[in-house]
Amino acid sequence: MVIGPAGVFTINSKFHRGKTVWYGDHAITVNRAPTKHIVASEHEARRTSRILSGHCGFLVPVRPVIAIVGAARVTVKNAAPPVLVIDGVKVHAVLAGLTPVIPAERVEQIFSVARRRETWTGR
Hints:
Structural class: alpha/beta
Oligomer: single chain
Largest sheet: 4 strands, mixed
């Protein structure tokens, strides 16, 4: 998970060494075979948003990110994808370059909640 001025992101890394990865409207294929990467990442982001929002007392939107590692080629054919699919080596640069959308005090509050074990264990 990444928490910063540009938002809260769940990062799901996928290792596809030497393979061709394609991301269209709502699907990712690896060497033309369909995957469940999008569904899994969206589920993870919704769960994280629900948990953080409940503990923070305000809505915490969470954007899913899939970091593709080791692929021979990554092609993204979607201008505004629901899941951000990034070459793994570019994750930091891409997220750091996004426009800030969360005030600094909210970033600190979300971070404080996220780092507590009881946030995630339900205790």
